[in-house]
Amino acid sequence: MIILAATGLAAGQTKPLLLGLHVNHDSSWPVQVDFDLWRTLDSPSGTMWKDIQTGPDSFDFSRFDQELQDAALANVEVMYTPIGVPSFIASAVGYMPNDDGPRTCACNYTVGGVSGCYPPKDINGDGSGTDATWQNFVIALATHVHSNHVQNPDKYADINYWESGNEFESDPQQWCGSFAQLARMMQDEKAIVNKINPAAKVMTVAMAWYNLSDDFAYLNAKANVNQAQTPAQLADIIDYHCYVYGYKRPEIVVATLAKLKQLTESIPAAAGKPISCSEGGWIKTAPVTWTDAQNWLSRYLLSVSSTGIIDFNLFMYDNYLDNTSGGPGPLAVLWAPSTKYYCSIPASPGDFCSPEISWSRVYAWLEGVTFQAPCANRRVVGGNVWICEHTSSGQYQTGEFVWYDALDETREYRVPYGFTEEQDINGNITSIVPGQSILLSNSPVLLMSFGKP
Fold first, then answer.
1. CATH classification code of 18-369
2. 376-449: what fold?
3. Using one digit for the tens of pLDDT, what is the confidence trace for 315-332?
């Protein structure tokens, strides 16, 4: 098992990673759960390049301004995802990833459709050209946001993390250009951002977890310009997604992130750099019921948090439109505006969905925690007992998060030496006796020892 080193955490961070969210509706602010980071992808129109830049030299920051004010009130950091090339900037020609010929693509709604996935017309397939339109946009956005933050630091959030795109290396419906173009745009982006806001971090494209060969090729790409650098060289943070299909056991994410770490370490320029999972959760198929979704999310969050990545962003806070009485839709959800969407835990306004219980408990559990290694399984008849060993700087000193992964089944577990209290996902604490057995289920529990490790 490979341990991922959690380097590059924000100053003052007392959890093993930042836990962030995506917010899909303006009306969902203020977000009513604790979180550390807001990622702009799939926010209401107003954060995409095509929404902000309305003409060659005109920009409309009004919608983004409001969301950055909301983020400041929530006291969270901001990760900006640039997508959606404006139609008056987009090329009429697409390029193969390795610039070995033209291609056409069907751009999807996430980039504004039609031409939003095509590269800017002033950058060639090999990364040469002026790249002036992209540079102008980054200058305008970075200057506007950073200056507003400096003038009103408590009321207007800055962009702390600049991504270089979203799954552009693997999804032609989001990016119909070459890897060399992406390398050039990242090189220009980093030069501009470092000049305007030296504290900000520049990240690679948020790469898919399922196509490692494309990830490798992208990370090693170079533009045909003087002093060209690869995304692996340029990046402050190596950025991936880490979804798990909802019908599968969420602990798979431990092995997924280990493979992504191996890929990163195989590239000398990327080795040792912090790793982000900027987007994850369940995808395409949801856990079977609301109870299963609650348990699935707690197991997934603990598994992700143990791997040493510096942040994780759940997709998403408010994906309530696909909810049913039987369970959530194909993406995670914590909150809905009313009980109409089958969420019934009172909030103000709206209602929490049952997975919120897991989010809030795990968020609290992780305060002051240092994992000894990624969560590990102990194979037993019928399934696996998962154990996440850690120390704590809080009220207890050593702990285990532990659960059984066979769906809707239970398993006895002998309490290790030194552990005297157990807390469940609802916060209930009971006394336990070392050497005696407790009953594990799909819902994780925290075992606590108050002696020295």
1. 3.20.20.80
2. Immunoglobulin-like (2.60.40)
3. 999 999 999 999 999 999
